[in-house]
Each structure stands twice: as structure tokens, then as C-alpha cells.
Amino acid sequence: MSSMDAKCPHNTETNCGDCRMNALCLPLALQTNEVAQLDEIIQRGRPLQKDRHIYNAGEEFKSVFAVRSGSIKSYTVSNDGQEQVTGFHLPGEIFGMDGIAHNHYTNSALAMETAAVCEIPFSRLQELSIAIPSLQNHFFQLMSKEITNDQHLITLLSKNSAEERVATLLLSISNRNLRRKLSGARFRLPMSRADIGNYLGLTVETVSRVFGRFQKQDLLKVDKKEIEVLDFDKLRALAN
Amino acid sequence: MSSMDAKCPHNTETNCGDCRMNALCLPLALQTNEVAQLDEIIQRGRPLQKDRHIYNAGEEFKSVFAVRSGSIKSYTVSNDGQEQVTGFHLPGEIFGMDGIAHNHYTNSALAMETAAVCEIPFSRLQELSIAIPSLQNHFFQLMSKEITNDQHLITLLSKNSAEERVATLLLSISNRNLRRKLSGARFRLPMSRADIGNYLGLTVETVSRVFGRFQKQDLLKVDKKEIEVLDFDKLRALAN
DNA sequence: CGACGATCTTGACCTAGGTCATCTTAAGGT
DNA sequence: ACCTTAAGATGACCTAGGTCAAGATCGTCG
Fold first, then answer.
1. What are phi and psi of A180, to 5 degrees?
2. What is the pLDDT of residues B17-45, one digit of tens each?
3. Which of A8, B165, B191, B211 could form an SS bridge with A46, CB 3.0 to 4.6 Å?
4. Is the whole model's pTM more than 0.85, yes or no?
5. Superfamily of domain A16-146
């Protein structure tokens, strides 16, 4: 499951240099000739359909992944069987770094919709990081960013109300869309209400009610998963 | 504040090879000759008294730190001024890695009691990681472990009751004491009830009540900060 | 096209833990 | 030793969000 066929006929882009995401993704910090080296170790996968796992918790860790299209969620399962969504990954973002510590993945990752990912074998990435110090540096930064993201979520869960949590998630998705040159004001949520609730430590019902209240206050227009932000100032004030 | 004088007359140990923590700390993955190289870049600080900051959020990131003795807490301050404790660091543990992503620290770190830390300039560590691949690998693992730790806390905050949270923290501290060959059953909590509550997303009152209940159920003996675990099975069952 | 299951919404009610107020105890400072 | 301040414990009360139950919508597959 976790390893994919190297080349795929469906893809028009066959390397990082041509990929629309290369300004956001791993090649970010690299020179043209270095990107070519990175390209040699990256494996591009065929499209994954909705609900397909990229890897499962407990599997041997071999690679980190980059989202090329679609969206991915990461989640852990605790001893008593309940799921905790730990992250949503959009195009240009890297996931799978939790596996490095223990040599197996601690999260499972699955496609929330049709998606494509690039697989980056970690041992080769480590070798390449020795040859290209800026790649080592970039990867340290990516991991550190994951740490600071998780710490933001910790603060959110520990200190903020349901409305503040939902507002913060919406702004996060809006900002990540802007980074990809998409609209920050109108977008489609790739995840279900249940996933949102799980991620934010709330029940589905509460998420639903918050969306309802936000609409009543003319903060949002919500049509199922389609979101339009009507009042960014108020939303930012809530998210603080 | 964040940089300390290189050598200190108070310390009997002048290098990692002699340090009691070297089996837990950075030298863990290294050969003897490699430890000597690491030693050259590490700066040992004089003892820090209680409530002294090692660094403040916003300061330029230069180094990561290892706890040699005493205990440290990390915390962030949100826009509206409230504090979120993000971690407690005991001897042998590394902290400060959140600073890598943005070139300044996002957390502040302070000594919860008299403590000593080693400062490891990050740029030198990066250089050395290129020369010593196992050091690079070890450091990737440390950062990944920080990620999985944070994700455990996310799950705890999002899904568990007050009693479960407190039980989990107590077990964590107990286990980290065992790693240091100290008693896992009797120990002194270095942090206040307020810090525990803040870290676990609870109020001081709730923490106090949980300790009370745990005593009534003969799960613990609590004398101020002095803890004795009387029933590990029940505690583990709660922490799950 | 129609029916079944999944997802979402809404309402009524309940409870874990927050808030506020009081008291006790411990720890520094002079 | 005495005073002051911070830390901790405990009780009475309140509320945000959980739980449970009922509908409403949507999407899919025969």
C-alpha cells in the first residue's frame, strides 16, 4: 500500500521542475540542478481514489509524501479504538514525518477525495541532504513547522471555544488556498463535518450548530461543503 | 538571555563523555570520537535559578538546548496574552526545536527550579550532521518524536476526561524518571498545579479535585508536590 | 427512477468541568 | 517571629458543549 509504482502514464508532469506545486513543496529551497537530483529519488503515484490509504499506522516507515492534488487526512487510533484526526494535508504540503521517530508510522493517512501524492524514500532523502545542505535545512524547517502547527492546535483545543476553533480552521484553509493562488474567500471543504469535529475536539452536532450560527450572523455562506467567507474581519477576530 | 557563557567553573563534568545524561541525550547515537566533535560545539551554562528564562518567544533562534539538571517548561503566549504550557523538559531531554521553522523561538522556556542546560548552536549542529550522518539521523528522530508527543497531547486534550489527562501526565513523568534510573513510584513534581492545569487544558481547581479523588481512591499519596503512586494498574487503566 | 444508507441539521435535555468565593497552608522577606 | 503573598483545597453554583432522538438531504446503486 505505501509504495507506489514509479512512473504513471496519467501524469503530464514527470518531474518537480514542471509541477505546479514546486514553489510550495520540497524544491522550494533548491537550485535547478539540485531539483534534478531530487527528482531522481521521487516516485510519483497514480491517482488514489477517495478513502484509499497511503499508509496505515504501524506499517514500517519508508517514505514521506507530498500532496500533488486532492487532499489527505492523517489520524491516529488510540488503544480503545477511537480515532483522532491529526491533520489535513492540501496540495504542496508534506506528510508522514511522524514515522521517523519509531521507524513505523504512528498515523494512518487516507485520501479524502481523489488525490495524487509523490513518495520520497526517506533514506535517499537523508543521503541527498548530506550532499545538499540547503535540503537538510529545508527539511529541518518542515519538521519544525509541523511542531509549531501541532502546538497551535494544542493551544486551540486547550483554550478556545467551539466557535473560535471552527473560525481558526476556516482561516487556516483559506490561507492555504491563497498560498496556492486560489480564492481565500470561496472554497470547498474537502472533509466531512465529522472529520472537522474530530480534529477540533468537538461533536458533529456542535460543528453543525456553529456553521448555523455563523450563517445567521452573516459571517459565512455555507452550502454543504461549499464555503463563502462574507466577513473576514469578524472571522479573524474570533480566531484571534 | 539565550546565549550563555561557554565554560563554567561550577561544573565537574566538562564534556558529554562524562555527563550522567549521555545515554539519554544527543550523544546517544554516536561513537566515542564523534562525541568529542560534538563536545567542541556544545556550550555548558552555569546554574540557572528558578524562573529564569533560557529564551523568550520572538528572540532569534540560534541554539537548541539539553537539560542537564533541574526542569524546564516551554510555553507560548497567544495574541490575547494567555499562556499555554507546551511542554515540561527533564534531564536528558532536548528543547528549543520549535525555533527552527521561523528563525525565532515561538515558545519561551524557563527554569521551574534551579537547573542547568547545555546550549547547542544549531548552525554548528547542522554542519556536524553532514559530517556525522548518524547525528543527522538522530536529530531527525528527535524532532519526529516531538511531533508524535505533541500529537499524543492533542488526542489527550481532544478526547479525554480530566482524570484521564492527569493520570496520563503522572505516568509520563513516572516513565521519564525510570529512564533516568530514578524511582517511578515516588517523585517530586517540579511544576505547580497551575502549570499542570494549563498544560492539560484544565483549571487549577479541577486539578486539585482530581488529586483529591485519586487520594480517596488510594491511587496516589499526595503531599504537596511529592507524589507516591500506590496503584499503577488503576493509573494505567485510566490513562489507557 | 426510487430506495436505502450516510451525512447533516435541529431540538430538548444533562453533565463535566468552569467560575467565583472562602479558607488553609506554605514560603519569603524584614 | 511576624507579616505578606502565593499556592493549594474545597464548596456552591452555572454554562458550554455533549448526548440522545428525530428529521431532512444527499448520493449511490440496483
1. -95, 15
2. 888 888 888 888 889 999 999 999 998 87
3. A8
4. yes
5. Jelly Rolls (2.60.120.10)
